[in-house]
C-alpha cells in the first residue's frame, strides 16, 4: 500500500506505537452491543484492533485518501463510513437511527480538538462516553482546577458535564510525523446519576465564563461588571477583587442561576 503523506491542514500525526495502541483499546474496552464512533481513523492503528472485537464500527474521516486506504483493509466490511467534518457531524441523527447511546473515540487533530469537544457537549445526552488522544495542553485545560494557569472556560464546561480521567501520557515519539508536543489519552464520562453542579441554563453559564475569561487578568468587578454589582458578588460570597481563574465551578453556577432567578436580561444569551 502506498505510503500516505500526512497533511498539515488536517494536523495529521499518526499513532504508530503498538504497545500504546494495545493499552488504548483495553481502556476503551469495546463491546459487541455498543455503538462506537471513531473520529479520524487515520492509518487504522485503533480501527483495526477495535474491529477485531466488534462487528460494526462507525468512522468519520475528512481525508478522502485515507478513506481509500480503508477500502483495502480486511476489516472494511465492518465499517460504516462518513466522509465528513466531525465537528459538523449530526450525532443526534445517528443516535435516533441506532436508538442507543454513542461511544466516541479517536486520536483528535490538535487544531480542532477543542471545538469538536465543545460541539459534542451539545449532544451530551446521547453520549455514553468519550475517549480521546489530545495535545497535553488541551487535556490539562480539561482537568484543570481553580487557581491553575490552565483553568478556564473549557475546564468549567467540561467538568460541568463530565467526570474526566487522564488514562495515559503519550510521548511524541509514538507518532509519525513526530509532533512538537506531548499527548494525553483521557476519558470523559457524562454524569448520569450524580450531578456535582447545577445551573438552570448551561447557555448562561457558557456566556458568563466566556465573558469572564475574555480578559482573564481583569478582576471580576470589571469583567462581569455589566451583569453583577460588587454588592451582588459579595452577597453570593464571591470576592469582586478575584480574577476569573480563582472562581470555582460551583460559584460560576451560582452566578448563572442568579441571572435566571432574577430575570436579568442579556441579549447576547439565547435562552
Q: What does this molecule look like?
A:
With 271 residues, the protein is of the alpha/beta class. It folds into two domains: 8-190, Vaccinia Virus protein VP39 (Rossmann fold, 3-Layer(aba) Sandwich); 202-261, rRNA adenine dimethylase, C-terminal domain (Helicase, Ruva Protein, domain 3). Helices cover 34% and strands 19% of the residues. It contains eleven helices and nine strands. The chain has helices at 18-28, 47-51, 64-70, 91-98, 113-121, 136-143, 153-161, 202-213, 220-223, 230-235, 249-261; strands spanning 14-15, 35-39, 57-61, 79-83, 102-107, 127-135, 162-170, 175-176, 183-190. The strands form two sheets. A seven-stranded mixed sheet has the order 4-3-2-5-6-9-7. A two-stranded antiparallel sheet has the order 1-8. Helix 8 (202-213) crosses helix 11 (249-261). It is elongated.
Going by CATH, the homologous superfamily of the largest domain would be Vaccinia Virus protein VP39
Distance between the termini: 52 Å
The major sheet is characterized as: 7 strands, mixed
| Radius of gyration over C-alpha positions, nearest whole angstrom | 21 Å
Order of helix and strand elements from N to C terminus: EHEHEHEHEHEHHEEEHHHH
Quote the average pLDDT: 92
Residue share in helices? 25-40%
**What is the number of helical segments per DSSP (H or I, 4+ residues)?**
11
Determine the structural class based on helices, strands and strand pairing: alpha/beta
Architecture (CATH level 2) name of the largest domain: 3-Layer(aba) Sandwich
What is the global morphology? Answer: elongated
CATH class of the largest domain: Alpha Beta
Which residues form runs of ≥5 with pLDDT under 50? 6-10
Assign the CATH topology of the largest domain: Rossmann fold
Percent range for β-strand residues:
15-25%
DSSP strand tally: 9
Total individual domains: 2
Amino acid at each position: 500500500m502506498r505510503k500516505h503523506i500526512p497533511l498539515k491542514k488536517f494536523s495529521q500525526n499518526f499513532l504508530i506505537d503498538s504497545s500504546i495502541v494495545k493499552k488504548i483499546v483495553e481502556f476503551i474496552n469495546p463491546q459487541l452491543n455498543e455503538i462506537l464512533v471513531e473520529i479520524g481513523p487515520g492509518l487504522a492503528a485503533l480501527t483495526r484492533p477495535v474491529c477485531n472485537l466488534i462487528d460494526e464500527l462507525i468512522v468519520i474521516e475528512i481525508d478522502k485518501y485515507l478513506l481509500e486506504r480503508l477500502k483495502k483493509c480486511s476489516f472494511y466490511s465492518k465499517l460504516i463510513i462518513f466522509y465528513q467534518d466531525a465537528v459538523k457531524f449530526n450525532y443526534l441523527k445517528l443516535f435516533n437511527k441506532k436508538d442507543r447511546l454513542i461511544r466516541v473515540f479517536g486520536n483528535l487533530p490538535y487544531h480542532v480538538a477543542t471545538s469538536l469537544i465543545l460541539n459534542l457537549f451539545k449532544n451530551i445526552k446521547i453520549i455514553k462516553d468519550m475517549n480521546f488522544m489530545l495535545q497535553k495542553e488541551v487535556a490539562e485545560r480539561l482537568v484543570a482546577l481553580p487557581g491553575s494557569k490552565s483553568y478556564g472556560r473549557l475546564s468549567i464546561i467540561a467538568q460541568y458535564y463530565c467526570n474526566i480521567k487522564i488514562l495515559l501520557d503519550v510521548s511524541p515519539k509514538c507518532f509519525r510525523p513526530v509532533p512538537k508536543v506531548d499527548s494525553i489519552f483521557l476519558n470523559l464520562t457524562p454524569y448520569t446519576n450524580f450531578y456535582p453542579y447545577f445551573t438552570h441554563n448551561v447557555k448562561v453559564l457558557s456566556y458568563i465564563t466566556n465573558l469572564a475569561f475574555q480578559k482573564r487578568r481583569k478582576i471580576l468587578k470589571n469583567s462581569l461588571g455589566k451583569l453583577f454589582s460588587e454588592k451582588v458578588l459579595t452577597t453570593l460570597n464571591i470576592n469582586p477583587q478575584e480574577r476569573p481563574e480563582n472562581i470555582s465551578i460551583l460559584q460560576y453556577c451560582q452566578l448563572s442561576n442568579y441571572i435566571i432567578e432574577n430575570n436579568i436580561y442579556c441579549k447576547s444569551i439565547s435562552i
